[in-house]
Amino acid sequence: MLKEERLKIILREINLHNKVLSTDLSELLQVSEDTVRRDLKELTEAGLVTKVHGGAISNSLVTPFQQQETVYGSEAKKVIAEKAISLLKKDQVILIEGGTTIQAFAKVTPKNLNLHFFTISPQTAIALAENNDAIVNTIGGRLHKDSYLHTGADVVNQLKDIRANICVLGANGFSAEQGLSDIDWEIVQAKKAMIQSSKTTVVMCISEKLNSNRKFIVSSIEQIDYLITELPADSPFLEPYRKVGVKIL
User: Deepest of 121, 131, 210, 248, by most Cβ within 10 A of its Cβ?
Assistant: First the structure.
């Protein structure tokens, strides 16, 4: 594989998943971790990604308040956000995390529904507060430097006291076989607690991320009630998820 092709694949993986590990890229590309580290250094020096310990993260996480138009897959994420509005009802309690797809949703949530949001993401809290008249609560804990999410035992304990109508999650990896997955253990624990505290779980995921699995399982596919993508709900590509009982929007 030529270096230019390798760099394109690395850049796509980082923009798609927001964070990737050097070990995963090494396995994907069938090259040494030293080669991956050199590639990440080059992409960082070019201003395309940000190298962190063990891998790299998307610049959308480093500059969290950038305009949505500069985010990877922004048009698809806007479509997903608009679809998700149909699940909102008056007086609901909603658990919501972070990420660029979630922020797109936060920016279009309707007013006058007396919604009550709890979030582990300071970014999501600000987006909701700026664009909505809902009550917005942040669940505090240690701030995860790569994802800007609050994680840790304090977060999990606070989530146990909440009884939410809906939990809205983004996806790092999602498949009909493995369900929802992620690469960070602490984030996985926070998301598990969010699901356990909610009656209904909604996953927002651009279609490029579907049929991919990450190292740690957040939930089985049976725990997911709704999947929202930018594709038409009757798309044949989504048939594996319909077959296992997930409702598609």
Answer: 121
